[in-house]
Amino acid sequence: KLKDFPKNFFWGASTSAYQVEGAWDKDGKGPSVIDMAPVVPGTTDFKVTSDHYHHYKQDVALFAELGLKAYRFSIAWTRIFPHGTGEINPLGVAFYNNLINELKAHNIEPIVTIYHFDLPYALQQKGGWSNRDTVDAFAFYCETLFELYGDRVKYWLTINEQNMMILHGDAIGTKSTVAVENPEKDLYQQNHHMLLAQAKAMKSCHEILPHAKIGPAPNISAIYPASSKPEDVLAASNCSAIRNWLYLDMAVYGRYNNIAWSFLEERNATPDIAEGDMEIMASAKPDFIAFNYYSTMTVAASAGDASDRGSTGDQQIVVGEVGVFKGASNPNLSKNAFGWEIDPVGFRNTLRDIYERYALPLIITENGLGAFDKVEEDGSINDDYRIDFLQKHIDQIQLAITDGVDVFGFCPWSAIDLVSTHQGCSKRYGFIHVNRDEFDLKDLKRSKKKSFFWYNALIAKNGAK
Ligand code: BGP
Fold first, then answer.
1. Which residues contact 221 (CB under 8 A, 6 or more apart)?
2. How many structural domains are present in the chain?
3. Could you count the other beta carbons within 10 Å of the beta carbon of residue 319?
4. Pocket around ligand 1: residues whose beta carbon is below 6 Å from it?
């Protein structure tokens, strides 16, 4: 028999600052690495996006109408500290005060991502995460947020998809541009600094706000072997260590995953660890694990020659590590319009894997379907494909809950249409449509998609059918 969703389950939705706010240089905001990264040809930039900065009241009213119990958004570091550290920007502080107050007034729980890809450009110019000073800048930024908003914000997420920034920084636009001798070692030095920064954030959150809860927010997915060949199973286990557990083992247990560490040793890419770092990491503990889930990954053993990296042959980013694993297509799964494999059962697998490993409460902070939505002549948007995708994933959460997994929230991507990380704004995810094209801003008018009414009804019944 299926278990019900818990009472007070956080039926939510997600966005991130740079993808939804626009107003990229307004009211004292400083530039981030995303603002300075080259725009992918054929796609819009992040200057205006959905202009949520100027529409936030209207948007929150729509979120309330949608029935959201929680809203997961990120704070743009460069609105608070335009140069990453130093002078605080009162207008940026005021924007998030207003947004948080508006959410509270509508009984929507704010869930705040502290850092979602948009590192201050001023810090990048000084070496970004390769420079240890960025750890202190981040720690100070976090303390500032806890002091500013901690009276109203109880749920905090440290860093969005750190693992994707490390593994796919070029596609996201976060890759460091600093020239270094050993790029792989430098990459894992950046990773080490981010892990340390995260540990400091968790510690100071608990000190400053004893009743608040904080956790990491990586992108996690179950990894399948392409066949039952033992070598492929081993490749999947290696991939999981490098892509998933490296990040969560450190966040939860404060230690480097052995398999991932030996992979780094092989490549001469282990980070330098300063005295005291491991003590800080070991003494910091998350209260929950948040994770983003879109798809699973399938991998095979890689022979070890440089050309043997594998590929799914389409837009889904699956790259291998030479000699360790290579990406493979999963013939059992269908794909969305952008080539991403759709795997609801894999969602249950992933929830179970994470919970078995860490035994902490889980919240899903992203899951959704990117699609080309069509506006009908009468203005309606019949996104049945999105409803189907989300319903199937929600069914799997319920099965995982029935398995005994402790899940306390689901925040699909995205609350409202916004600009994709690297595929423009024609790739849409929202329950709320925003009237604009890739290069024509039109009137940015908001309208409700069919999925809006569906999600509203589902929330009203607490997920029961
Ligand atoms: C995640 C990011 C989000 C979001 C989402 C969808 O990796 O955290 O910021 O963009 O993916 O991806 P995309 O925009 O590439 O379709």
1. 244, 293, 294, 295, 296, 297, 346, 350
2. 1
3. 15
4. 16, 19, 160-161, 164, 219, 292, 366, 370, 413, 420-423, 427
**Residues belonging to the chain:** 465
Is 333 domain-assigned? Answer: no
* pLDDT per position as a tens digit, 233-257: 999 999 999 999 999 999 999 999 9
Atom of ligand 1 nearest to the CA of 16: 9
What is the helix (H) or strand (E) element at residue 74, kind and residue range?
Answer: strand 70-74
In a domain, 3, yes or no: no
- Catalytic residue positions, numbered: 366
Structure confidence at residue 176 (pLDDT): 84
The residue whose CA has the least distance to atom 11 of ligand 1 is 421
How many other CB atoms are there within 10 angstroms of residue 135's CB atom?
A: 22
CATH of the domain at 347: 3.20.20.80
Pocket test for ligand 1, best of 366, 389, 414, 427 (most atoms within 8 A of CB): 366
Among 413, 418, 425, the mutation site with the greatest number of ligand 1 atoms within 8 A of its Cβ is: 413
Q: What is the pTM of this model?
A: 0.97
The domain in which residue 57 lies consists of 10-301+338-460
284 belongs to a structural domain: yes
